[in-house]
Amino acid sequence: MFARRAAAQVARGVGRRAFASHPSLHTLTDDENALKDMVAAFAQQEIAPKVMEMDEAQKMCPELIKKCFEQGLMGIETPAEYGGADLGFVGSILAIEELAKVDPSVSVMVDVQNTLVNNGFFRWATEEQKKKYLPRLANESLGCFCLSEAGSGSDAFALKTKAVASADGSEYVLNGAKMWITNSGEAETFLVMANVDPSKGYKGITCFIVSKDNPGIRVGKKENKLGIRASSTHEVIVEDCVVKKEDILGEIGQGYKIAIEILNEGRIGIAAQMVGLAEGAFEGAMKHSLERVQFGQPVGTFQAMQHQQAQCKTNIVAAQLMVYNAARKKMAGENFIMDAAMAKLYASQVAGQVASQSLEWMGGCGFVKDYPQEKFYRDAKIGAIYEGTSNIQLTTIAKMIQAPYL
User: Fold this and answer.
1) What are the φ and ψ backbone dihedral angles of 366, each rounded to 5 degrees?
2) Which of 97, 149, 279, 387 is catalytic?
3) What backbone phi and psi angles, to 5 degrees, belong to 53?
4) Angle subtended by helix axes 88-100 and 104-111, to nearest 10
């Protein structure tokens, strides 16, 4: 009955405006379109010529980092009053995706800055902390998020880094070592998770703001990675590192909540990175397959190839829609945790599949470093590992889909 009544109303034009008010997930605002176009042009003009050189050197070009700040890419969601672009979470996601089409290493640098570090400050910082840190993070200095340790990866809250309070509680002394910290090689601001009371378990975990000039913090071993090699990944050591109480982010014992919520949002960023990577790999291979002729026709026009191309593109668009949906739900204040986990899980799977197949489409050319395909293939693997492994995403999804039945 309801369906007939609704159909009759639509036929008369009643309610048509209500249906029309919900645009496609691919429909962007004018500001979002402008940002997307700007980032795409920047990536082609400034990043593309440096990609292979940075990958081989395993180092991000300092001048390129500076240009990312000049383009406003390091404070996309940060409110304008703190020196940011104030373009919202979806703006960050669009930028991360566009950058990953050219270089996933630059993309993850921008991702961590926006979805983890900046996000932590404008959600949990005091007004004084916001005024001190957000303008510099938006305009001049990188930050990093120090959670993982050698013995606490997926089991993040088993961390061993400790923070011991002084007698009067005015400062804390941190000791411990963090592993696999993105952006740590260039960072000037470190968000360090440490436990102020191990007897309370995860409820003792607290987030401390530590500046690079603090004599108690140092950047250790640089990891020699399979992919995203230009992105700096180091061990970070805190040794008798004295931090004042006013440099605690959020409340004492709130670190676990900060970490969980930041990573829930960060997973959408990683999913966007994986979608962009898949798009970059696909676009390069498609062009090649329609230019290279074998047996008298472009290799991309053989039916077997067409079917593979169609499947890859379908998967890319599906992953992209999942990412955009999770990002829109986050901005709307809706529960997006399962959406984020699904988006990251699926986008990382699609990136791996597309990067592998696009390399094969290019044959020998895909296997050599004269073309970006082999790099996309190497870069794709990390998507199933950082900011929550695929198995962790599956566990999160399973718990949430079972909850209504228990």
Assistant:
1) -70, -20
2) 387
3) -60, -45
4) 160
How do strand 189-195 and strand 171-182 relate by DSSP bridges?
Answer: unpaired
* Predicted TM-score (pTM) of this structure: 0.94
Residue recorded with tokens 């190839």: 305
Rounded distance between C-alpha atoms, residue 103 and residue 96, angstroms: 10
Q: Which residue has the tokens 């923070």?
A: 163
- In this structure, what are the phi and psi dihedrals at residue 161, rounded to the nearest 5 degrees? -65, 130
Q: pLDDT for 180-191, tens place per residue?
A: 999 999 999 999
Question: Structure tokens of 42?
Answer: 């920047």
What is the pLDDT, as a whole number, of residue 22?
73
In contact, 350 and 271? CB cutoff 8 Å: no
pLDDT band at 373 (very low <50, low <70, confident <90, very high): very high
Output the CA torsion 73→79→84→87 (10° steps).
40
* pLDDT tens profile 243-300: 999 999 999 999 999 999 999 999 999 999 999 999 999 999 999 999 999 999 999 9
Distance between alpha carbon 79 and the CA centroid of its chain, in Å? 19
Averaged pLDDT, 364-390: 97
- Tell me how far apart the alpha carbons of residues 262 and 241 are, in angstroms, rounded to a whole number: 24
149 flagged as catalytic: no
